[in-house]
């Protein structure tokens, strides 16, 4: 029988024949009952009467720690001393009594919380908090204390990088969620998911955790929480480059949220959709989703951090269209908002501001922006140092300095997809400017000599020169047999030709006018 709960607190016992575990751990021929003890105050006589316990050997499983570790730290006790007069086996009773005494729950009071805070080591505090949560009381004060215990426990597990236990905690708390309002449940679930997100290298765990919670919220019909967990799941899938699955999830979620007219959530989802389409290089759909997010945001009060996210995404899309001046203004607005909130994204907004200045050939302004009192020393770090190095290379028009910056700040430049995309364009521009400056004094020059001057491989230089000729950046041709570049003088256009074309165009207009007049007279 599964799912059985008796008054003593024992839950879920099955006969040996139903347990696959028996083959490895239970001696053959033993008639036993598998019991999971979830309350640490088990009255054995009550258990015997309610569960039909007989004189047969009893195979008992109970936690060595509180029940959050089911399946990990559980150990069996097989009673071989079953010849006692009371018919329940002295060995079993002795073991059960020991567990009952050492693992009793704590009262859900402020004193218990203080006891956890005063614990010298985190593991001791975690154990105390688990024991508080095991208290069966469901009074208003007990529930309030348990909520604080959950918050403290999540923080401790996060600090200890125990992501799996955070995941197990959510499963363990499901009975507790039925005792508190749905809004508080949503807050606790989201806070625990956020705690897991702060632990490094847990992307896969976060995705599986969100999928579990989505399934649970569907079963429990908690629509409000499910929609927010699904939005979080779509964001995680996008970060993991699972674009088709993320897009399918967002498409269905947007339709549902629009019907409910939850504009605050709709802004988040539309922003997420814009980022997703931008990652897929679908700029028109990214702009359309951003416009939809702005439209929804205009109808409600938008929190400052969300407004900063909208401005940041607007700047990214304008920069993608090479409208760097408009992008700079959006990045500046985003920086102002994030800076006031002390949000870590402020440094990225500043980074993109500096990028826009570099892209419009105003690299000299970078030093002025960084020396302002608002920025000062607050945002000094590798992100800002990387942009300073790029600005210096651009001001010097030095490819060598540019490549040095890319090499020294690889994580900040090449691994940032937004910066990398624009710096690739900037590198091509710098290369073309340097090549034009080097070939200007020559009418015929060896490609190897140009490559030596610019400190780049010959094949790289040859490929770039051929591209520039095709793009009509200069007039010339490549003599690949001799390995030379032949530069032609720019053909000078005689001024008489444009004047002649203009005269012929004006005569054509006069003739057309006379034709219209003659047609009217004849009519």
UniProtKB/TrEMBL annotation:
GO terms for biological process: protein catabolic process. Gene3D superfamilies: 1.25.40.570. Keywords: Proteasome. It comes from the Eukaryota. One of its GO terms (cellular component) is proteasome complex. Pfam families: PCI, RPN6_C_helix, RPN6_N. Residues 323-492 form the PCI domain. Belongs to the proteasome subunit S9 family. This is PCI domain-containing protein. The lineage of its organism: Eukaryota, Viridiplantae, Streptophyta, Embryophyta, Tracheophyta.
């Amino acid at each position: 029988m599964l799912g059985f709960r008796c008054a003593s607190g024992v839950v879920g016992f099955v006969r040996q024949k139903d347990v696959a575990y028996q083959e490895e751990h239970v001696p053959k021929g033993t008639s036993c009952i598998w019991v999971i003890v979830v309350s640490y105050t088990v009255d054995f006589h009550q258990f015997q009467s309610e569960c039909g316990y007989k004189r047969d050997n009893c195979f008992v499983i109970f936690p060595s720690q509180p029940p959050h570790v089911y399946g990990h730290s559980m150990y069996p006790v097989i009673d071989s001393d079953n010849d006692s007069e009371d018919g329940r086996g002295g060995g079993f009773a002795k073991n059960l009594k020991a567990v009952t005494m050492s693992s009793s729950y704590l009262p859900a009071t402020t004193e218990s919380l203080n006891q956890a805070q005063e614990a010298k080591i985190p593991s001791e505090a975690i154990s105390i908090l688990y024991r508080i949560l095991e208290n069966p009381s469901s009074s208003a004060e007990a529930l309030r204390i348990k909520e604080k215990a959950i918050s403290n426990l999540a923080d401790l597990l996060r600090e200890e990088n125990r992501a799996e236990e955070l995941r197990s905690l959510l499963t363990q708390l499901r009975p507790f969620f039925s005792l508190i309002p749905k809004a508080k449940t949503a807050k606790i679930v989201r806070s625990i998911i956020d705690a897991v997100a702060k632990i490094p290298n847990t992307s896969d765990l976060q995705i599986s955790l969100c999928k579990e919670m989505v399934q649970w919220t569907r079963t429990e019909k908690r629509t409000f929480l499910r929609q927010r967990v699904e939005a979080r799941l779509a964001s995680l899938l996008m970060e993991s480059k699972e674009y088709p699955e993320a897009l399918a999830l967002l498409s269905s979620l947007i339709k549902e949220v629009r019907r409910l007219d939850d504009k605050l959530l709709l802004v988040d989802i539309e922003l997420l959709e814009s980022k997703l389409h931008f990652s897929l290089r679908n700029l028109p759909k990214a702009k359309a989703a951003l416009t939809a997010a702005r439209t929804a945001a205009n109808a409600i009060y938008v929190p400052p951090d969300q407004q900063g996210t909208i401005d940041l995404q607007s700047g990214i899309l304008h920069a993608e269209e090479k409208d760097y001046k408009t992008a700079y203004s959006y990045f500046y607005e985003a920086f102002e908002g994030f800076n006031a909130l002390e949000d870590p994204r402020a440094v990225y907004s500043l980074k993109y501001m500096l990028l826009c200045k570099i892209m419009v050939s105003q690299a000299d302004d970078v030093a002025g922006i960084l020396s302002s009192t608002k920025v000062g020393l607050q945002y000094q770090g590798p992100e800002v140092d990387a942009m300073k190095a790029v600005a210096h290379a651009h001001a010097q028009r030095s490819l060598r300095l540019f490549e040095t910056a890319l090499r020294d700040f690889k994580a900040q430049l090449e691994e940032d997809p937004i910066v990398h995309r624009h710096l690739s364009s900037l590198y091509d521009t710098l290369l073309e400017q340097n090549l034009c400056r080097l070939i200007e004094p020559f009418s015929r020059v060896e490609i190897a000599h140009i490559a030596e001057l610019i400190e780049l491989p010959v094949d790289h230089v040859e490929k770039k020169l051929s591209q520039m000729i095709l793009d009509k950046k200069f007039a010339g041709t490549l003599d690949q047999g001799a390995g030379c570049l032949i530069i032609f003088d720019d053909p000078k256009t005689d001024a008489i030709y444009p004047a002649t074309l203009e005269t012929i165009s004006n005569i054509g207009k006069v003739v057309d006018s006379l034709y219209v007049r003659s047609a009217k007279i004849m009519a």
